[in-house]
Amino acid sequence: MSYTIAIASGKGGTGKTTVAVNLLQTFLDAGMDAALADCDVEEPDDAVFLQPEFLKTEEVTQQLPDIVTSRCVFCGRCAETCAFNAILTVPSAGYIKVMPDLCHSCGVCSYVCPQDGAIIEYPKTMGQISSYALDGREALIEGTLKIGEAMAVPVIQATKKSLHALDTEIRLIDAPPGTSCPAMETIQDADYVVLVAEPTPYGMNDLRIMLQTVREMQLRTGVIINRYGIGDGSLEAYLTQEGVEILTQIPYRETIARIYSKGELLVHALPEMQKLFSALRQKLLKKQKPYATNHHY
Questions:
Q1: Could you count the other beta carbons within 10 Å of the beta carbon of residue 251?
Q2: What 8-state DSSP symbol labels residue 27?
């Protein structure tokens, strides 16, 4: 049975990617069967730190409807049943148009259309998925949203599907920051969610929102405090009050920032970071439930 761990944050810039890539490397260094999916598809950068071997790229497409006006009877059923208001029609003027940026490819319009051949579907490229190898085996899946596209969810879904197809023992997922639809799509079926936070007023505010969201989703979670030492202890006090476990604390040090800015892994550059992430790996493994599920996509 596979164990899926999502690494998320309430805001960008907290160190989520740092945790994700170093945690993956720690699992691999321990000889464990692990892989990472970079689902921060608007700005994926896990490959920068891991320096993996490129394997392949494939397009992510979404089926979108197109109206054949010569066959359309302008009954308006498609527009009435579209939950996303993606179809605009003016029957009196003989006008109908699909707005691709709003369409979720649910297929309802085709289902309710009474006129054969009035609605056809065509594939639209939403982004791409790239696969990479580490130590001779496929271990990194990277989703990238096409520039100009507004909907990240289809690319995230395809990225997760590729990760689960690897059937590894440990599945790590680097989620988009915040509590928007892309982030929720990414973490919704994780066995455990690691939240990365920083001890600043903004960091605490966004963590509160993220914790509330994760609890409503009934997901198990713990927090990593990054840049530990710059705060006044308010974050630790809040987590203790809320009964949320602090998994580990990454200190605020110039050396760590310099290594990160060079695109290097902390676990390979600093012995104390190798020890910290090894302890984190062991702690996360102890949280694995015997019935951790294999999710299907």
A1: 15
A2: H
